[in-house]
């Protein structure tokens, strides 16, 4: 099965590289004894960026993988919906 995000793969890779740079910036801030609130603001930014990636992946999973399964095998679609629900629960808790 092809992944739901296959057409957006380059976009996700670019976004994750940007997040990686933000995390490196956080490391530098700690090494340089940056003001706590500035570090926390950057942590919040990284967290939001990761959450946006997760929501995008989840949306594409439901829109592609779950929909495809529902057209082929309703039992498999039910499994995938349950799996997506657990993923949403993890996102909400984080």
* Broad CATH class: Mainly Alpha
- Shape call: elongated
Radius of gyration: 17 Å
Query: With helices defined by DSSP (H or I, 4 residues minimum), what is the helix count?
Result: 3
Helix content: over 70%
Can you give the mean pLDDT? Answer: 92
Structural class: mainly alpha
Q: State which percent range the strand residues make up.
A: under 5%
Oligomer description:
single chain
Number of DSSP E strands: 0
Looking at this structure, what is the CATH superfamily?
Answer: Metal-sensitive repressor, helix protomer
State the order of secondary-structure elements, H for helix, E for strand. Answer: HHH
Specify the CATH architecture. Answer: Up-down Bundle
Low-confidence stretches: none
Which features does this protein show?
single chain; 94 residues; Methane Monooxygenase Hydroxylase, Chain G, domain 1; 0% strand
How would you explain this protein's 3D organization?
This protein has one domain (6-93): Methane Monooxygenase Hydroxylase, Chain G, domain 1, CATH 1.20.58. Helix content is 85%, strand content 0%. The protein starts with 8 loop residues before the first helix and ends with a helix. It has 94 residues and is an all-alpha fold. The chain contains three helices and no strands. The protein has helices spanning 9-31, 36-72, 74-93.
């Amino acid at each position: 099965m092809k992944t739901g995000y296959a057409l957006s793969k380059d976009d996700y890779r670019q976004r994750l590289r940007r997040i990686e740079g933000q995390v490196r910036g956080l490391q530098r801030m700690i090494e340089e004894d940056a003001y706590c609130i500035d570090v926390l603001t950057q942590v919040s930014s990284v967290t939001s960026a990761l959450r946006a990636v997760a929501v995008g992946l989840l949306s594409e999973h439901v829109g592609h993988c779950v929909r495809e399964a529902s057209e082929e095998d309703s039992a498999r679609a039910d499994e995938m919906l349950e799996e997506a629900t657990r993923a949403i629960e993890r996102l909400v808790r984080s």
